[in-house]
Design goal:
- It comes from Haloechinothrix aidingensis.
- It contains 14 helices and eleven strands.
- The chain has 302 residues and is of the alpha/beta class.
- It has a single domain, classed as Vaccinia Virus protein VP39 (Rossmann fold, 3-Layer(aba) Sandwich), CATH 3.40.50.
- It has a nine-stranded mixed beta sheet, with helices on both faces. Strands 7-8 form a two-stranded antiparallel ribbon.
- Strand 7 and strand 8 form a beta hairpin.
- It is globular, with a radius of gyration of 19 Å.
- The structure holds S-adenosylmethionine.
- The site of S-adenosylmethionine has 18 residues, from helix 8.
Length: 302
């Protein structure tokens, strides 16, 4: 069996993610500005006093926005390449190279429940959640046989993340919008390999939101969820196509080597090409903010 790392180069080979990532804008602000706006709204100007953990940190794009708020900063990612990059940029951080699912379990086992003022996960939670439902290898995708059990375990994982929050803390996540034309194309392409459980590629987001609503119902906090529309900007057609092949399709051989797939991607991105050669793909982001407040009474007017 081919090692999954041989084709998933976007997260496993130095520099690929930063080079292939398209900038995403929402009303003139990029995704990191959305994070900064939330941080300012919740914590004001950075005072370096918070206990912060970030899961799926990648090369540390969002970490750079979190770090000024942190007294103690823990960052984790399953890719050694990513962890090396983020460690170089954040010498003060504790870095953990592991699956988010294991990191959450280990932090709880180490007695860290209720100890983080801020838990962040940006564009990264779909992976550990998806892994409850399917396993990816270079040869294909192996769906979980017991979807109900997968859903239960994924839900427990989400609830465990909320257990890390200190009273008043926030779990902040940015999550891809599976309903945009771009993501619908990605879904159709992946479905050539294997179908997705139940609601298509929205299932990971739905599991996350359902578990957070459950946590709200149990009185563990309150959930704010908005969807922002935006655009992914590519300076030219080739960058837009590389974004599909390397980031969306993870250089998966059966897809990137298929001429009909390549034709579909090319004709899709051409629809959004400007006379300048630049490409602006319609995009969207789900902004998820779980606030660990013990009592719904905080909603009352003061
Ligand atoms: C789309 S990137 C986002 C990186 C970063 N948060 C950002 O906004 O640029 C997703 C990241 O999740 C990591 N990742 C994928 N599956 C993971 C898992 N199960 N556990 C931990 N990290 C994972 C990848 O290595 C990658 O760095």
């Amino acid at each position: 069996m081919t090692d999954v790392k041989q084709f998933r180069s976007v997260y496993e080979t130095g520099g690929v993610y930063d080079r292939r990532l398209l900038a995403h804008y929402y009303n003139g602000r990029d995704d990191l500005d959305l994070i900064s706006a939330l941080l300012t709204a919740h914590y004001g100007q950075p005072a370096g006093g918070l206990n912060v953990v970030e899961f799926g940190c990648g090369t540390g794009r969002a970490t750079a926005r979190l770090a000024p708020y942190a007294r103690h900063l823990t960052v984790s990612d399953s890719s050694p390449i990513m962890i090396d990059a983020v460690g170089e940029r954040n010498a003060q951080a504790r870095t953990i190279c592991a699956n988010t699912r294991d990191v959450v379990a280990e932090l709880l086992a180490d007695g860290r429940a209720g100890s983080f003022d801020l838990v962040g996960a940006f564009w990264s939670l779909s992976y550990p959640l998806g892994e409850y439902f399917e396993t990816m290898t270079a040869e294909g995708i192996q769906p979980a046989t017991d979807v109900a059990a997968a859903r239960r375990h994924a839900s427990t994982f989400v609830r465990d993340m909320t257990r890390l929050l200190a009273p008043g803390g926030h779990l902040l996540a940015l999550f891809f919008d599976s309903d945009t034309p771009e993501q619908q194309l990605v879904t159709r392409l992946w479905e050539r390999i294997a179908s997705f459980p139940e609601e298509g590629r929205s299932y990971t987001r739905n599991v996350l939101l359902a578990a957070l609503r459950e946590a709200e119902g149990a009185g563990d906090g309150t959930l704010a969820h908005t969807r922002r529309s935006g655009t992914a900007f590519a300076p030219d057609i080739d960058s837009a196509i590389a974004w599909f092949n390397v980031v969306h399709l993870k250089s998966f051989p059966a897809l990137v080597n298929d001429p009909t797939v390549q034709e579909e991607i090319r004709s899709f991105v051409r629809r959004y090409e400007h006379p300048s050669g630049e490409v602006t793909l319609p995009s969207g982001v789900h902004v998820i903010d779980f606030h660990a407040t013990r009592h719904p009474a905080h909603h009352l007017p003061r």
